Amino acid sequence: MRPSGRAPDQMRSIAIETNFTIHAEGSVLVSFGNTKVLVTASVEEKVPPFLRGKGQGWVTAEYGMLPRATHTRGSREAAKGKQSGRTQEIQRLIGRSLRAVVDMAKLGERQIVIDCDVIQADGGTRTASISGAWVALRLAVDKLIAAGSLTEDPIEDSVAAISCGIYQGTPVLDLDYDEDSVAEADGNFVLTGKGRIVEVQASAEGATYDEEGLLRLLRLARIGCTDIFAAQAKAAGR
Amino acid sequence: MRPSGRAPDQMRSIAIETNFTIHAEGSVLVSFGNTKVLVTASVEEKVPPFLRGKGQGWVTAEYGMLPRATHTRGSREAAKGKQSGRTQEIQRLIGRSLRAVVDMAKLGERQIVIDCDVIQADGGTRTASISGAWVALRLAVDKLIAAGSLTEDPIEDSVAAISCGIYQGTPVLDLDYDEDSVAEADGNFVLTGKGRIVEVQASAEGATYDEEGLLRLLRLARIGCTDIFAAQAKAAGR
Amino acid sequence: MRPSGRAPDQMRSIAIETNFTIHAEGSVLVSFGNTKVLVTASVEEKVPPFLRGKGQGWVTAEYGMLPRATHTRGSREAAKGKQSGRTQEIQRLIGRSLRAVVDMAKLGERQIVIDCDVIQADGGTRTASISGAWVALRLAVDKLIAAGSLTEDPIEDSVAAISCGIYQGTPVLDLDYDEDSVAEADGNFVLTGKGRIVEVQASAEGATYDEEGLLRLLRLARIGCTDIFAAQAKAAGR
Amino acid sequence: MRPSGRAPDQMRSIAIETNFTIHAEGSVLVSFGNTKVLVTASVEEKVPPFLRGKGQGWVTAEYGMLPRATHTRGSREAAKGKQSGRTQEIQRLIGRSLRAVVDMAKLGERQIVIDCDVIQADGGTRTASISGAWVALRLAVDKLIAAGSLTEDPIEDSVAAISCGIYQGTPVLDLDYDEDSVAEADGNFVLTGKGRIVEVQASAEGATYDEEGLLRLLRLARIGCTDIFAAQAKAAGR
Amino acid sequence: MRPSGRAPDQMRSIAIETNFTIHAEGSVLVSFGNTKVLVTASVEEKVPPFLRGKGQGWVTAEYGMLPRATHTRGSREAAKGKQSGRTQEIQRLIGRSLRAVVDMAKLGERQIVIDCDVIQADGGTRTASISGAWVALRLAVDKLIAAGSLTEDPIEDSVAAISCGIYQGTPVLDLDYDEDSVAEADGNFVLTGKGRIVEVQASAEGATYDEEGLLRLLRLARIGCTDIFAAQAKAAGR
Amino acid sequence: MRPSGRAPDQMRSIAIETNFTIHAEGSVLVSFGNTKVLVTASVEEKVPPFLRGKGQGWVTAEYGMLPRATHTRGSREAAKGKQSGRTQEIQRLIGRSLRAVVDMAKLGERQIVIDCDVIQADGGTRTASISGAWVALRLAVDKLIAAGSLTEDPIEDSVAAISCGIYQGTPVLDLDYDEDSVAEADGNFVLTGKGRIVEVQASAEGATYDEEGLLRLLRLARIGCTDIFAAQAKAAGR
Fold first, then answer.
1. Is C41 helix (H, G, I), strand (E, B) or coil?
2. How far apart are CA B191 and CA C48, in angstroms?
3. Touching check for C124 and chain E: CB below 8 Å?
4. What are the tens digits of pLDDT across the range F15-72?
5. CA distance F131 to E73
6. H or E element in which residue C94 lies
7. DSSP 3-state assignment of D133?
């Protein structure tokens, strides 16, 4: 029995509220149950130094957690003067996941910066971030297309992410904090709308797992992502 | 004529939504027009080193702005590895303003940390932060009282803040970004519910001002704070 | 009775020793009683990136306190690896105060950097810094004029600063450390030679104050600045 | 055809030279072809703050790359003043992988710190690090057992890691730099001697992959780890 | 011919003004010609962690240069966020030089922190710092003795330092900036009042030197230090 | 009697293994007894900003010590976020020593970066670094000559370094850790193949020394460097 009473293959309710803020070219508040992340996509008409003059664009991401997004207050990374290893790991994953479905040549020599800021955390902040980020990116690109800045759509597929893990011996979908903190294994799966895999990160925590376990987690992830793709499409008006 | 069409002594609409997040002992989303700040109050059963064993409490504050809270994306302070002088100046002001109305002996040997994170900026983020912070603090203290952790209420008065400035030669109340960026003078006033002054910070920007100007700004501030005190009382259920 | 025996509206003795060091275009050792600050003005034939090519100049300031300027040794900011919030707040105030009386277009595309280093502290280091900085700036600009680099004087007015506060219920002028550390309210006032206000920063410390209190502090500040303007004029040979 | 002429399921030659340095309780120079990593295990009779007094131990890891371990010189992280996100990601993976096979209660209240420093890089530095680290850890624990500091062996299984990826459409084992830099997908697999999975991290790079692709990589990883387990056993004298 | 017209073995005029500031237990303004350093000695009734409970004291030093102590303004180390290698090298030398003549057991479990801040630089700032620091230390220890905190004098000898170098082929004493910037070799010599050597640091700059050259520099240093010892004795009232 | 049983003027065995790594233009593993340093020379076709366009080259050095190169593990500088004063002092000495024998005009507008990373420490890491660095530099320059990038050899002499000190009253050559940690005086001497002095750094540690002592250390250094020059010549194939 899961703490939340959910079935093993049951997602939390997903909500993607678009245009949550007014300045960003794309912005959403994405919720996976009590996990809430504000995601913005900012278009910048420049690229990082290593890409200058190459006629292609870039998509990158930054991630942060508000100090009291969590049960007990964590220290503010800006005050500590550095981002934790966990933060960097997550923001690298978000950027990589989005780049996997964007044709950088079609994007042209501009950069889209995704900011994922966790307002409230209850497990799965990185997967909610990726799932929301795709919508924010979609909205920002739609504006570029509408403005005539882009003639071809550089987004080739949708991308969503979900966590799955082994909780008390059972593979379960979309772990919340109560499950995540005691799970025997914990995986994050990034999938595309066409059913391809972008990234699998599955770690044993206190126990190891086997190939069958990995496949069961992956299959749960496919179930969850189906729901997310539907929510994304609706939010993006597609 | 103000860009927003407001009268010189007209505030933007104020909203203070309580319990915006679930983990913090006190939390509000405070809006002054398009400026939106998420404020949380976190109770910690410890005090900073310089107060240990002195039988009194502490209230402190941290401030941050999400990278795309603004018209163009600013860099993330956590990524840059330090808080700007502006950020530090603001968070010091917030902490000082709240401490002016709290009896630290009555609070007991515990600390309340206020986090003000700007979700969307349109001028006046520091005054919205202070005004919302008082409500978050009030809610957190109410929980301590309800739980029997406090026998006496350590909050002696309410506190609110508003910006006033001289825009195109006219003193105006509650500057938004369009006004703030070109104002000849810009002041932040922190007042208490009983009509006392906690802090005045009034800077010339490109032009100097005189005593009469200062007093006119202060009188506008009193008008604005009356509205804020009402919104605070309603939000705090007082 | 003030600890120093001074009358409530009595300044400490002011001294402004010019050309205290040999390399800087302008340099003074400014003393407000036992508070001593070495101020230098350095002319640089370049401007910060945000002003390049705009045909105007810039004045900025940095502030520091020698570790043993104070009663007990403080840690060295260079060794700690960062400037405190207090330091940044002060240096921003110094820069803003000077810029209020300089016509940046007349200064031309060059920068004047003011360095205020506190040799000995006894309260009022920021106001002594501003007051001395104007003289250092004046000397540096005079050299530019003498050298023919400037054809018009970009300095439009003089600027001075003084602290006033409420000590044991009485408004007093030019607080020294003994007063400052226990004052109920503490304000810094930056005024121009023509009687205009550049900046007011008045904070309650443990007690709040009212409009009448603010005005009494401002009037004391005018008295004090009169003395400072005289000392500045004499030092600057005007 | 692979650049090195290897068959798709062919590892590079593996060497694990023990006692490469004299001071560490365990030390090895591990080579996967031209990738060479110096790994040391240091026993410290203390634990991190969060574990104090809990009667259990800890295993953690740090990773670094010498500036000229690579084709062109990279900047020195100590000189830049921070570890990159990549470095932090890798050292977190190494620590997690080792902890998966250690019984912390049996280790007692002591910490073993693993240092992995890449002397020469040609792809696969993180997997060589994990594989070598297990031997260094084994040697250090053997010393603790020989000295009577441990009565039970806290190491429950061996652990090894290998990269696999899709190179020009073909799944291949143990990517070297020439392959790694252009692979369509790149995975790191951490397996135990008993055949269990500790961690899978498989990322698409420019192309996505499918479940069959993931399984083929995992199967290649099993082949490679068989070789590594043999080399580990021989090096550790088991 | 030296730029200053001095004879090869001629020092600049030395001045050591005691009690330059009021708070420090010992303070001097030391001048070697146009080089001026403010040195304070601060007594702290604690020792660094590595000495706690060992019944002995410590003497350490920090060094800084005001941004406009030099011909052109240098950046402020506190603002840059780190001390340069040069700064660290110098402050380590100052501390080592003083510790060579102090009996740490006699000092008791307390620390004396020397701060050397260069007000104006014209070559030889580190040697002026060491020479002045001994006087500041002497004054601070005299106060401890006078107060009865010390029963035995922990200072066993005086210590002074001077630079010598090879300028246009000729060994010269006490290099000023004009010489220092083009000298073929540059040495700093730290000697004791009893004629012993504490430290020799002699570097070729563009040319190498030989044993005879080293000895000639050392002999010049003895000449210079004789003057400094006399100035120190007079300043310290000995 | 020395702890190692060596005669006072006896070096430890020296080994210089060339081409220890494959990527660097020059690389050696240099051993002075148990002290082992990996040194690489990297050629970069650019110069630091202060030399751009001046038609001359630069040689610089960085130094690091692996955390467990020492008896007990030291913290990793990259993780702490800064290089220690000792590290900076050493890397500045290495760079200066090499530059003393290189004609920068002949090197052309390129930079050679020397990295010295201590694999295992037993005293004398900086002198082993300098001695090995010359060989790495020699190998890198030989490649530039062989490739036709240089027409004249910019290396004018060889350079080697050795430590000497006073151990239990006796001057001894090439201190190992057991001697170094208790020596009364400790000097590092950098000499050229033609018998010239590049740098002398001789510090008293707990005792002072005299001119005769300095000369005896210098003479021992000459003996030691003779051995090192022979090892360098052999390693460099000269």
1. strand
2. 37
3. no
4. 999 999 999 999 999 999 999 999 999 999 999 999 999 999 999 999 999 999 999 9
5. 37
6. helix C85-99
7. helix
Closest CA to A198 of A90, A96, A61: A96
Distance CA B154, CA F211 (A): 72
Whole-Å CA distances, A223 to A158, A161, A219, B29, D150: 15, 11, 7, 35, 47
CA distance F23 to D69: 7
F73 touches chain E (CB under 8 A): no
Residues 29-68 of B with CB under 8 A from A: 34, 36, 38, 40, 42, 44, 62, 64, 66-68
* Inter-chain residue contact D34 with F22, CB threshold 8 Å: yes
The pair of three-digit structure tokens given for residue D118, joined into one six-digit string:
């890449």
Q: Tokens standing for E192? A: 């004791």
Q: Do C79 and E83 make contact, defined as CB atoms within 8 angstroms?
A: yes
Tokens standing for residue A70: 């969590």
Could you tell me if C200 and B202 are in contact, meaning their C-beta atoms sit under 8 angstroms apart? yes
CB spacing of F78 vs D71 below 8 angstroms: no
Q: Both tokens of residue D42?
A: 């240091």
Cβ contact C183:C205 at 8 Å:
yes
Q: What is the pLDDT of residues B159-180, one digit of tens each?
A: 999 999 999 999 999 999 999 9
Question: In chain A, what's the furthest Cα-to-Cα distance?
Answer: 56
Q: Is residue C213 exposed (0-12), middle (13-18) or buried (19+ Cβ within 10 Å)?
A: buried
Closest C-alpha among D48, D43, D44, D118 to residue D87: D118
H or E stretch covering E137: helix E125-146
Q: In what order do the strands lie in the sheet with B14-18?
A: B14-18, B26-32, B35-44, B111-120, B58-65
Q: Is the dihedral of CA F122, F124, F125, F128 positive or negative?
A: negative
Query: 0.90 cut: is pTM over it?
Result: yes
Indicate the pairing of strand B14-18 with strand B26-32. antiparallel
Closest CA to F43 of C98, D68, C178: D68
Distance of alpha carbon D144 from the chain centroid: 22
Q: Which residue in C has a C-alpha nearest to residue B186's C-alpha?
A: C199
